[in-house]
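A student in our group prepared the protein record below, which I am reviewing. Here is the record exactly as it was handed to me.
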Amino acid sequence: MIHIKMVVNLIKGETGKKIQLPKSLTVSKQYNHLIMSTVDKPVYLLPKIDQLFSVNVPGTTFIDKWKITTTAQKNKLIHDNTQNNDDLVKYISKQNHLYVRKRKKGDKFVPSGMTHHKKIQDFMVDEKIPQQYRDRIPLLVNEKDEILWVVGWRTSETAKLNHHQEGLKINFQLLSI
């Protein structure tokens, strides 16, 4: 019963706190999530991205456990991103060169629907992305290193489609953990 009370108190407590339970079980609170592991190391649900990767446009690219598919889309086939329930599929303005990388210190972008830049660090905190995942979230960038999409979260105004453009459909698929 004492361990249940400890977990309940953890749920009610601050983000970033953790407790040790018997049999080497660690429970930590990260915003709206409880993360349980059998060792005192973070459990990563996303593969590590440690360099800049080029993405085939159009085509398929494999980066560690990610499969990235890009296909050209004609105007009549493009759907509004806001109606897309799959956070790993987006439609963006056509780009000749795309790359995937992790965040860098000082990164900023203009999130879709906004008119001003926001630092990626501030965006991730505001979106309550657990700290242990922030360096593992892929960023889709163009040849100017402008962030087009914080994958799984939000595209940028830079990537926004207008009705007269050809676009790209981009699908990120996590193959396994």
Q: What stands out?
A: Residues 2-37 form one domain. DSSP finds two helices and 14 strands in the chain.
